């Protein structure tokens, strides 16, 4: 029986943290059972912004695949591959660039925002401007109905649909179905300091963190800033820790913690202890799986996935080339 198809990728920019897990990766793990799923390491996309110092990319690729498999992606259930190993993505990106107006790329909100916010890198390169065309190629290649991504990717998804529509208009209806973003049901996962969890803010809890790494991090987490003493009633809705109980504790325990906080019977220190226990229980099986994964096993997973992705990509490109008159 044919399953609906989905595809998604992540840039190998460093170790994955809880924000990645609850924002996107958890969705990948669920989808591998219901969909024909393609998940890839977007190493070309990493180069669009990190071209000046690519020294970590290779290691990051291997480590990211380990994080994925540790989190529950099963290479027997989905296709795990590397973007740069399936050259068809580059060819489709080139062909799509023929029909993509530069103005669409320049007005992309993500592009403008990152140009302004990222000041330690020169993002005036053509590759960075064309980031969304490559992303559209990654997606449309597999003609999926949906793409599991975080909210930050919505402008890119919109552009992908615009490119698909334009292709269909020029070269034939229903070449590319218009793919929808599949967002994870609202998962709030703030960083240790309350800002968005991000490697560049240095406020993350990583999937590969040991208990010794995590303990001091949790100690420094903000709770309700107005709660100075244990005898003050707290407010879980402004606490930086409570969203984690929502992700990791049972509904009954969440309610118990909410009560304990608001009636001042449970202090922040105890609340953090509970969080640590849940976090350790969550990370333990991930890390056990990770420990059993050698670099050689990752290479094998990617070799196999690259081949399966290529088999699909070849068929799409045959059709695209011929529709574009080549
Ligand atoms: N832009 C995505 C990110 O930063 C990575 C990505 C590249 C991607 N190509 C993709 C995601 C295709 C989904 C589908 O996370």
UniProtKB/TrEMBL annotation:
<keyword id="KW-0030">Aminoacyl-tRNA synthetase</keyword>
<protein>
    <recommendedName>
        <fullName>Tryptophan--tRNA ligase</fullName>
        <ecNumber>6.1.1.2</ecNumber>
    </recommendedName>
</protein>
<dbReference type="Pfam" id="PF00579">
    <property type="entry name" value="tRNA-synt_1b"/>
</dbReference>
<dbReference type="InterPro" id="IPR014729">
    <property type="entry name" value="Rossmann-like_a/b/a_fold"/>
</dbReference>
<dbReference type="GO" id="GO:0006436">
    <property type="term" value="P:tryptophanyl-tRNA aminoacylation"/>
</dbReference>
<dbReference type="GO" id="GO:0005524">
    <property type="term" value="F:ATP binding"/>
</dbReference>
<dbReference type="InterPro" id="IPR002305">
    <property type="entry name" value="aa-tRNA-synth_Ic"/>
</dbReference>
<dbReference type="GO" id="GO:0004830">
    <property type="term" value="F:tryptophan-tRNA ligase activity"/>
</dbReference>
<keyword id="KW-0067">ATP-binding</keyword>
<keyword id="KW-0648">Protein biosynthesis</keyword>
<dbReference type="InterPro" id="IPR050203">
    <property type="entry name" value="Trp-tRNA_synthetase"/>
</dbReference>
<dbReference type="GO" id="GO:0005829">
    <property type="term" value="C:cytosol"/>
</dbReference>
<keyword id="KW-0547">Nucleotide-binding</keyword>
<dbReference type="InterPro" id="IPR001412">
    <property type="entry name" value="aa-tRNA-synth_I_CS"/>
</dbReference>
<keyword id="KW-0436">Ligase</keyword>
<comment type="similarity">
    <text>Belongs to the class-I aminoacyl-tRNA synthetase family.</text>
</comment>
<dbReference type="InterPro" id="IPR002306">
    <property type="entry name" value="Trp-tRNA-ligase"/>
</dbReference>
């Amino acid at each position: 029986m044919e399953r609906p198809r989905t595809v998604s990728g992540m840039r190998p920019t460093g170790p994955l943290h809880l924000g990645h897990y609850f924002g996107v990766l958890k969705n990948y793990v669920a989808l591998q059972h219901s969909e024909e799923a393609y998940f890839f390491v977007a190493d070309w996309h990493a180069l669009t912004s990190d071209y000046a110092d690519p020294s970590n990319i290779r290691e990051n690729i291997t480590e990211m695949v380990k994080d994925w498999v540790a989190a529950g992606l099963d290479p027997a259930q989905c296709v795990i591959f590397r973007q740069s190993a399936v050259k068809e993505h580059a060819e489709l990106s080139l062909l799509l660039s023929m029909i993509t107006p530069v103005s669409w790329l320049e007005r992309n909100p993500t592009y403008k925002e990152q140009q302004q916010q990222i000041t330690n890198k020169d993002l005036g390169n053509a590759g960075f401007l064309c980031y969304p065309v490559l992303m559209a190629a990654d997606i449309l290649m597999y003609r999926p109905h949906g793409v599991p991504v975080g909210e930050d990717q919505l402008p890119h998804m919109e552009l992908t649909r615009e490119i698909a529509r334009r292709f269909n208009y020029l070269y034939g209806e229903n070449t590319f179905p218009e793919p929808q973003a599949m967002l994870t049901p609202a998962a709030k996962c703030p960083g240790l300091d309350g800002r968005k969890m991000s490697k560049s803010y240095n406020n993350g809890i990583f999937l590969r963190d040991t208990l010794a790494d995590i303990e001091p991090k949790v100690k420094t987490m903000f709770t309700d800033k107005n709660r100075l003493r244990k005898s003050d009633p707290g407010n879980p809705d402004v606490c930086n820790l409570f969203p984690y109980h929502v992700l990791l504790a049972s509904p009954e325990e969440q309610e118990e913690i909410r009560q304990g906080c608001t009636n001042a019977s449970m202090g922040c220190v105890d609340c953090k202890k509970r969080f640590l226990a849940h976090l350790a229980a969550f990370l333990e099986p991930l890390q056990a799986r990770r420990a059993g994964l050698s670099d050689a096993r990752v290479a094998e997973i990617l070799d196999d996935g690259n081949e399966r992705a290529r088999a699909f990509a070849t068929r799409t490109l045959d059709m695209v080339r011929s529709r574009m008159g080549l």
